[in-house]
Specification:
Blueprint (H helix, E strand, L loop, with lengths): L3 E5 L4 E5 L5 H7 L17 E6 L2 E3 L9 H5 L2 E3 L3 E3 L3 E4 L13 E14 L2 E7 L11 E5 L7 E4 L9 E7 L5 H8 L6 E8 L11 E7 L3 H12 L9 E7 L7 H6 L2 H6 E7 L2 H6 L5 E2 L2 H9 L6 E6 L2 H14 L7 E2 L5
Parallel strand pairs: 1-7, 14-15, 14-18, 15-16, 16-17, 18-19
Antiparallel strand pairs: 1-2, 3-5, 3-7, 4-6, 8-9, 8-13, 9-12, 10-11, 10-13
Length: about 350
């Protein structure tokens, strides 16, 4: 077997890390609950200590590590590739064990659906089945671009190997610039997944509230699509709240209307934050931040719901703070993966 052996300190646990794989991805592929959230260097949830052996750091200065972490010898397991056999110190988390073993596969772009001026649905196909839970994400590797990028699937798992991602073009973003300006049908990338812990738990007997901002709409579309087709939600509500800066950023109505199950089941609410643009473009919907619309719509019933959300950090931070401090929503009813 190629690669290097990785031992977890203080436990009779050892796994193999294939050549080029990170500590985190290899551990998850081995069925271990290595803690993580974003899997791309931003959040810091995957910190470990390397007690023995050597690793290559893919992203020195990644925001997920503080100066104190560096001083204490901690590294991000999602950014480290072992170059020798290693021993690491980490506290495993059963909740982080992958429901589906992540698989790396070549993928071909077969369709692009433009949704707004700067957001589109990119549809890829692999030879293997697209196996994931609604709300999870995959890591995409682009030829010529260093580092993987995490994007959430917006479709449902399928045997045809179709992976759909709603992606927003980011100013100065090398990956999204390449996707939007250079990629055409027939081009290839590598998809590695699924990952993510903020996926739909339909067995929890509560109505659900999905909240998205920007390309954070992608996993929420997958979740509401799955819920609208699941008979366990026949007697529960399914809400989708989506916020954009201007009316031109709102595309949820068309996406929901294109699916009969979602059209019949999903209650959709949208808000724009730019009041001047709202007035100039004749917007007659809510104006303000999306977490404010959530509170205005559901108010004192918020604690009765299960929450799934994804979006810019200011949105997720404001929403979490509001739910927990103002409406006493138990933290275990709040599901989101941190992306920074």
């Amino acid at each position: 077997m190629s690669g290097h052996k990785v031992k977890i300190s203080g436990q009779e646990i050892e796994f193999n890390c294939e050549e080029g794989d990170t500590l985190l991805r290899a551990g998850l592929r081995a069925g271990l609950g290595l803690p993580y959230e974003c899997n791309s260097g931003g959040c810091g949830a995957c910190k470990v200590e390397v007690l023995e052996g050597d690793v290559d750091d893919l992203w020195e200065g990644a925001p997920g590590l503080s100066p104190r972490d560096i001083k204490k010898g901690r590294v991000l397991s999602c950014q480290c590739i072992p170059t020798t056999d290693c021993e690491i110190k980490v506290r495993l988390n059963d909740k982080a064990v992958s429901v589906h073993t992540p698989v790396k596969a070549a993928a071909t772009l077969y369709q692009i659906n433009q949704l707004t001026d700067d957001m589109a649905e990119f549809c890829f196909k692999t030879d293997n089945a697209a196996t994931f839970e609604a709300g999870q994400f995959a890591l995409l590797d682009f030829p010529g671009i260093v580092g993987s990028r995490g994007y959430s699937m917006c479709n449902l798992p399928n045997d045809q190997g179709e992976w759909h991602f709603i992606i927003k073009k980011m100013p100065g973003g090398s990956a999204t610039t390449k996707l939007f300006e250079d990629y055409k049908v027939g081009d290839e990338i590598v998809i590695d997944g699924p990952y993510g812990l903020a996926y739909l738990r339909p067995e929890i007997p509560r109505s659900i509230v999905c909240v998205g901002g920007g390309s954070g709409l992608s996993p929420e579309m997958s979740i509401v699509k799955a819920a609208s087709k699941d008979p366990r939600f026949d007697d529960r509500e399914v809400y989708l709240f989506y916020g954009g800066r201007t009316p031109k950023d709102i595309c949820t109505t068309g996406l929901i209307d294109a699916d009969e199950d979602m059209k019949a089941k999903v209650k959709n609410f949208n808000a724009v934050s730019d009041a001047e643009a709202a007035e100039a473009q004749g917007w007659d919907g809510a104006v303000g931040f999306i977490h404010e619309l959530v509170a205005k719509t559901l108010g004192d019933t918020l604690a009765e719901h299960e929450f799934y959300f994804c979006g810019p950090p200011p949105m997720t931070d404001a929403l979490t703070k509001m739910l927990v401090t103002e409406y006493k929503v138990p933290i275990e009813q709040i599901n989101y993966d941190r992306f920074y």
